[in-house]
Amino acid sequence: MKTSSKANSSELLEQLEAVDFALVDMILYLDSHPQDANALTQHDELCEQRKEIRNQLAIANGAVYKYEPTRKLEWPWGQSPWTW
Length: 84
Hints:
Structural class: mainly alpha
Distance between the termini: 12 Å
Helix content: 55-70%
Strand content: under 5%
Number of strands: 0
Radius of gyration: 16 Å
Number of helices: 2
Largest sheet: none
Number of domains: 1
């Protein structure tokens, strides 16, 4: 049985994956329609959503990806709880 924080982390991770998928799709669209103002606005909104979700995940679990900057004097990657 999942704890509440693990369930929340799983939900956030699913949201992040969905936004990432939408961003890839939007980027592909913008490659062929670079002047579409609505698509550019949606892209920016998705980027903001992704940033917020990633920040929430980082607060709950530490770094979401290994290549995110760390301001600590030790490597934190294996120390925080894993989301799966």
